[in-house]
Amino acid sequence: MKSIRRFLVILMVAIVTLANFAAALRGYLASMDEAERLFNQRLLQQVDLLNYALPKSAAVAGKPLEFPARTSNAESSLEFQWLDNNGALLARSAAMPDSVLVPLQEGFRYFNFNNYRWHLLVMPSSDKQSWYILAERDDQRYRLAESMILQAVFPMIIALPLLALIMWWVTGIGLRPVAHLASELRQREATDLRPLAQQDMPEELTQLTQSANELLRRLEASFAREKRFSGDAAHELRTPLAALKIHCENLLQELQPVPESVIKLQLGIERMSYLVEQILLLNRTAPDHFMGQFAPVNLTRLAKHCVVDYSALLAQKNHQIEFDGDDCWVLGDAAALASLLNNLLGNAIKYTPPNGMIAVNTWLRGRDVVLEVMDNGPGIPVEQQARVFDRFYRLGGDRHNSQTPGCGLGLSIVQQVVELHGAQIALTSSRFEQGLLVMVTFAALAAPRPAINSPSELNKLDPSDAGESDEKNN
């Protein structure tokens, strides 16, 4: 059942049609009985007319009278025979045979002649000296009766489509509160967990509204707990990790030569710090939790600043980077978009071998803005491209074939930012000889004002929010 409205209309029309059919059938049978009674009564009246109309001298005329056939196209032919008490024919209509049709016994009966079935009435005359046999074709009787009955049934049949339209309109009015409730829920933001209004709510929707409000209350409490957890985790995890870093740096300065175990300890602490920051960033950019206010963002300038932030790392690995494209504006959150750019560019830098090539482009394609980040690194096999967005999933397990450490959350964060902005992301082969091309398609913004043009205008973003430090890139 895909549509309650359609189901109700079809059900009601079916019920009305069935009820009308039953009523019409019963009315038809009753009407046929009544028509039969009226036709029989007409035959009795014809007997009275014959008593007055036939000449009294017909019995002594020596031969029976024969009345000529009617020239009018009568819908119901009425024929007769006039006989004496001995069964001798005194008079007849043109369509009646010369012989007596049935025994002279008073009453109604059926008889076949002239290729038709006839309804007969046998009655004595008023003076009891003769008999009348009146005959009427049975098919014409039923045709006249049915024509009168169907004239009463046809309006009911014709009214069914009109009745279906009225039912469709009425059910639409009746289901309007459901459509209003659905519209209210559809127009709400993901973070709007206010209870639904119950004023003037129909009884049938009260229980549904109460259940929805209870669910919204539980969701609000759950999001509040997660938000508190994020804040507590940021404080409880960052503080001891910062202390561990300091102590590890002290060990590196005090111990000469530096033991390999201390170096591994430092790498483990850095990886743990990176993992904590990525998990917190992943939680903050979740569409259901995100509380940022969208504003016009110059994506081209934001991408340029991101490239500048990575200039030291690019020089360290001797990467050649190209930047090209149009001046593109999108409606979004600058901090989240900075996280997306930092993760994509950070991945390209980390997984591209030294002396490699990287390209960052922003193109305006009609009503779309296309962001491209391309490298000539090892790339991602086609069969693995759908899974790299899963949390904690990395090609080759915990350590990539390139021996580059990571936690498998960078592209998960990118996908959440893409979903947050209603954009689309696609992975394909690089236009270099090898490598990966990541394309993110946004809806273009026609009126880019007010604008956010540089990281200094990103609401003084925390580096952990924008993902701007090198150690926080996957």
UniProtKB/TrEMBL annotation:
It is found in: Membrane. It catalyses: ATP + protein L-histidine = ADP + protein N-phospho-L-histidine. It is a multi-pass membrane protein. InterPro entries: HAMP_dom, HATPase_C_sf, HATPase_dom, His_kinase_dom, HisK_dim/P_dom, HisK_dim/P_sf, Sig_transdc_His_kin-like_C, TCS_sensor_his_kinase. The chain crosses the membrane at residues 148-170. Its main location: membrane. Keywords: ATP-binding, Kinase, Membrane, Nucleotide-binding, Phosphoprotein, Transferase, Transmembrane, Transmembrane helix, Two-component regulatory system. Residues 232-446 form the Histidine kinase domain. CDD domains: HATPase, HisKA. Residues 172-224 form the HAMP domain. This is histidine kinase. It comes from Cellvibrio fontiphilus.
